[in-house]
Specification:
Helix 7 packs antiparallel against helix 8. The N and C termini lie far apart (about 45 Å). The chain is about 30% helix and about 25% strand. By secondary structure, it is of the alpha+beta class. It has 13 helices and 22 strands. It has 4 domains: about 100 residues, 3-Layer(aba) Sandwich (Rossmann fold), CATH 3.40.50.20; about 70 residues, Dna Ligase, domain 1 (2-Layer Sandwich); about 130 residues, D-amino Acid Aminotransferase, Chain A, domain 1 (2-Layer Sandwich), CATH 3.30.470; about 100 residues, Phosphoribosylglycinamide synthetase, C-terminal domain (Glycinamide Ribonucleotide Synthetase, Chain A, domain 4), CATH 3.90.600.10. The longest helix is centred in the middle third of the chain and has 21 residues. The chain binds adenosine monophosphate and glycine (GLY). The site of adenosine monophosphate (AMP) has 13 residues, from strand 8 and strand 17.
């Protein structure tokens, strides 16, 4: 039996752990730092996901057969490289490949060099030149992106010159996101439905997973602030077979090959954030990891052994693995703390769960919960849980997920009532 350490502590990690636990080959699962809900499925250790040396020490103590590094920051900081140096089998890209998410300038230059469709762009390191360019272009909305990781907040869609200038000054001059925003990308505003496609790759074989759709705004009808994602559905109806074929030929395979040609072979989960524009699919962003909350709807659809896939990627034999998907659909509704994505309270008692933090008929993936001394679940973050259900069709999956949501109660709870609405309408 294989023992596994999963690095991270959100809903995505909970979904990975629950899928791994279905494998007949997997024995003990450890998680660091984990959370209240995860602790029911994995033994949790209080080591921060960004603490590279702390995690190496923990791995030396636990001696897992594999370490799965799920979040972006430890990947970009080189946690996989350090674990490999110490002889551990890992899942996740090395730092020289994680840069595909760690630097927008890198990813834009890669796409330009290898002719991968994306928005037209320019890079700036001083605000005067950036402002001069904005005035010349005089085209709004304008999209301004911090080069490095910025906790998902580094993209500004400026509606007019004033907003654009403010964004540029805050990023470059005031270093709003620290070093991450000392360089910015200004790019063309694209339109069209968005699709998330996660993929498994070992650098030679590319296996796109089933597609999904995120819902980023905080409130119903895509109103309110941008969040880390308030819900997801899979598959995404905008991602037709023709679009999938075009993406494979023009985006997925070329990206995998480009990374290899650059001496940065990507091994792990490569995430394609796509926009299906009137001129065809284009890349909005790459992530070097499983998306959150996309993973929460994609992994329940996987009809294969996740451990086998991870091991095959590490051993560069992904081409030999048979990866299938369930029919039907999956939906995830995020329950957040009142006030999220701005300020919110933590430590609020939650009820409605069984003793494993689940509700009947759903997978409840915990993102920000902890257990108190009496074993009660308390809120402990902005996004608290993702209530997920799989069914024969999207409407039934949504009905089941919302039924699960209705059973869970905590003061200030906040969720969107229209997850999947756009996907259902697209189908008609
Ligand atoms: P991110 O924070 O990187 O997930 O991106 C935030 C959102 O900004 C994306 O999901 C898109 O909706 C939007 N976005 C990013 N780049 C563009 C673009 N070039 N044109 C239009 N929308 C964009
Ligand atoms: N859901 C988008 C992300 O994981 O960045």
């Amino acid at each position: 039996m294989k023992n596994i350490l999963v690095v991270g502590g959100g809903g995505r990690e909970h979904a990975i752990i629950m899928k791994l636990s279905e494998s007949s080959k997997v024995g003990k699962i450890y998680c660091a730092p984990g959370n209240g809900g995860i602790s029911k499925y994995a033994e949790c250790f209080d080591v921060k996901a960004t603490d590279i040396e702390g995690m190496v020490e923990l791995a030396k103590k636990l001696k897992p057969d594999m370490v799965v590094v799920a979040p972006d920051d430890p990947l970009v900081l080189g946690m996989v490289d350090r674990l490999n140096e110490e002889g551990f089998m890992t899942f996740g890209p090395k730092a020289n490949a994680a840069i595909i998410e760690g630097s927008k300038v890198f990813s834009k230059e890669l796409m330009k060099k290898y002719d991968i469709p994306t928005a037209f762009y320019e890079v700036f390191t001083d605000s005067d030149s950036a402002i001069k360019y904005l005035k010349q272009q005089n085209s709004y909305p304008a999209v301004i992106k911090a080069d490095g990781l910025a906790l998902g907040k580094g993209v500004i869609i400026a509606q007019n010159e004033e907003e654009a200038i403010t964004a540029v000054k805050e990023m470059i001059d005031d270093l709003k996101f620290g070093k991450s925003s000392s360089r910015v990308v200004i790019e063309e505003f694209l339109t069209g439905p968005e699709v998330s496609v996660l993929s498994f790759t070992d650098g030679e074989t590319m296996v796109p997973m089933i597609s999904s759709m995120d819902h980023k705004r905080a409130l119903d009808n895509d109103q309110g602030l941008n969040t880390g994602g308030m819900g997801t559905v899979s598959p995404n109806p905008c991602y037709t077979e023709d679009v999938a074929k075009e993406c494979m030929e023009k985006i997925f395979i070329p990206t995998m090959n480009a990374m290899k040609a650059e001496g940065r072979t990507f091994e792990g989960c490569l995430y394609f954030g796509l926009m299906i524009t009137p001129k065809g699919p284009k890349v909005i962003e790459y992530n070097c990891r499983f998306g959150d909350p996309e993973t929460q709807v994609v992994l329940p659809m996987l009809d294969a052994d996740l451990y086998d896939i991870f091991e095959a990627i590490y051993e560069h034999r992904l081409k030999d693995v048979d990866i299938k998907w369930h029919d039907g659909a999956c939906a995830c509704v995020i329950m957040a703390s009142g006030g999220y994505p701005e300020s919110y309270k933590k430590g609020i008692p939650m009820n409605g769960f069984d003793d494993k933090g689940q509700v009947e008929g759903c997978f409840v993936y915990h993102a920000g919960t902890k257990l108190d001394d009496n074993g009660t679940f308390l809120t402990n973050g902005g996004r608290v849980i993702g209530v997920t259900a799989r069914a024969n069709d999207l409407q039934s999956a949504l009905d089941k997920a919302y039924e699960g949501v209705s059973k869970i109660d905590f003061e200030g709870k906040h969720f969107r009532h229209d997850i999947g609405k756009r996907a259902l309408e697209f189908r008609k």
